[in-house]
Amino acid sequence: MKLRTLPAPALALLSATLLTSCLPRPEAFDPNRQPQPSDFGPHNVATEWWYVSGYLPESGLAFHWAQFKVNYRGIPYHAGHLAVADLRADKLNLFENESQNTRYGFPPLRVEQGQWRLNQQPDGSFRLGAGPLNLTLKPLKGLVVHPPGYSGTPEVGRLYYQSITRLEASGTVALAGGETREVTGQVWLDHQWGDQQPGAQARWDWFGLHLSDGSDLMLYRVRNAAGQVVQVAGSRVDQAGVAREVPDVTMTPGRVYRSPSGREYVLGWTVSAPGLSLTLDAVRDEQELLTKNTSVAYWEGPVRGQGTLNDRPITAEGMGEFIGGTLTREEGGRFVPSGR
User: Fold this and answer.
1) Domains and CATH numbers, the chain
2) Could you tell me which residues come within 8 angstroms of residue 196 by beta carbon, excluding any fewer than 6 positions away?
3) What is the value of pTM for the model shown?
């Protein structure tokens, strides 16, 4: 009878604690282990996520869907983010999913949180239904592991990293005002898992780009909590779907955007490597996401650029992600007591 007098949050915490007492300890990160396609998920680790992000200029849209599965102080926690930018109306909408009713599986891939679902179909395509999104995603390339197989360092934590870098998207997006817009274009699917704590422990500047020659470029610049760069990595997935390291890559910050929250994000970049020169910038500046269910502030939005690859002109379109830190309690942060 006493349990019935506890407030709902206390009962939920007690239930989760009792549940985790029966769960195995999270797997330790092994930098010598290379992920395989069969590692598409899920795993028993501290942090795991799946992303689908896309810049769809023909549809006047950009979107970012993310499913997070974390082990917070021994308690499993699940959170979902969905940001939809209507580039024609110059509006951004953020949706957060706090349901703890989740199901994960592979093969085939199944990532479900409440009514939000990314499910792999018998033909290898994916169905993504989340809030206003109703999409079919057809892979144009296979799964790849980005060299050296993970992002991060022992200092800030590490995450195994694999992607399907190019999928053909079709379907609809429901927008404010009752409009339902048809979707065409190409998107990017990411999967990462390991022992990193994004926002507090590690921050990064990331690009997933589709190049006009049919190849795809991933760029990753990892920073510690003090803002010091501890890793810069790049990989290019060629037209045949083979991923190779981009050696000696540099990401030089340029134009800075100061958001309404007071955080600063680099939105203009110069990228260089042997045979590669690229300038990148945001399509729309006001893309900061203050996500209360993970207490992470980040910029996620469409980017484009141009330059040369092996002395030939090239253009780039895709998404950028820049971590701005954590939310304070005053901003609605739940897991970080203070500071950014």
Assistant:
1) 46-331 (2.40.370.10)
2) 46, 47, 151, 152, 156, 157, 158, 159, 202
3) 0.91
pLDDT attached to residue 27? 84
Handedness of CA 225, 227, 231, 236 (dihedral sign): positive
CA distances from 253 to 267, 268, 281, 287, 289 (A): 8, 6, 10, 18, 21
- The values of phi and psi at residue 10, to 5°, are -70, -40
Which pLDDT tens digit goes with each residue over 230-243?
999 999 999 999 99
For 275-302, the pLDDT digits (tens) are: 999 999 999 999 999 999 999 999 999 9
The 3-state DSSP class for residue 295 equals coil
Torsion (CA) 253, 54, 84, 202 in degrees, nearest 10:
-40
Rounded-to-integer distance, Cα 122 and Cα 163, Å: 19
Dihedral of alpha carbons 88, 89, 90, 94, sign:
negative
